Amino acid sequence: MTHEKVFTLKNRREVKIIFEATYHSTTQKLKTDCEILIREPGEKAFRTPIGISHPKYWKLQTVTKEQGRELILLYSGLSRKQVQLAENEFNQLMLMPA
Fold it and tell me: CA 78 to CA 83: how far, in whole Å?
């Protein structure tokens, strides 16, 4: 299951947060993952906040996955409150019966 939410920030940047849940049959557990993409005013497509031309790209390659997530969140411009709001919506959708 996938849930996408787009936030428009004060500087008109759009930030898309994508939550995805996958069921692993071997461990019988549900794994959720989160991806953050941005689109500046005038751009047509969403992209990652820290691309290869970004000054922090190489730092992103050397840190742990959790630290990388925090770095991407910082450079996207989203607040933790907005991420929590999108995550709560995703969790509500997961609890609804099909």
Answer: 7
